[in-house]
Specification:
By secondary structure, the chain is of the alpha+beta class. It contains 9 helices and 5 strands.
Length: 219
Amino acid sequence: MNVHELVSVLADPDVLRARCRALALLDVVLGGSAPRHDYFPGWRAGVDLATMENGSGDLYGVVFDPAGVFLYGFDHECDATPWREWPRAHWPGLLEGLPAALAHYAADPELQFEGFFDATVCVWREADAASWRCGPVVFAPGESDGAGWLFRVLTDGSAETVCSVAQDYYERPVDREAVAAILSGAPLDRRTVSVLNPVAGFETVADRARLLGYVVADA
């Protein structure tokens, strides 16, 4: 899957936002020293940011702005990497057509590396649009931008897929029903936390969940 397929399978912004928040919470509960996902409500005034970093140089970000959603990913080993040449250069057409209301995020220093917006995938959806869009990028047979694996969890969203990825990353079993509860947006309770991580302190996790904007069950 490249970006052209990605735009056809991405969920609507509200579903995507909830999924991003749930993935960040799941990493909080599982308690790894280097969580893959995070979510920052109010990253900018009225703007939220969801991120993923795998610890090997690959990442994605999803900016939720009142003007729309800007999603980008970076696969450092794919054909479309800006590092394929020097000075670094985006794959032709990557940012072409990006609306002015969202284009400034590609220039945000916090989303850049050494003064450059490292991205191999870019997708956007303006607030009044009915579908996702991308630039007119072209790939030869066999060429990749990393969209397929970078956004596998976001596009699938199933408990089975999330469990599979989490188990591989954390190298331990992860309870499917507990994951499904978090993905569904069910209020976080002590049982869910305990099943996923018996050594996690519920109040500590609950405090973090509230900061993420996730609902916590009454004690």
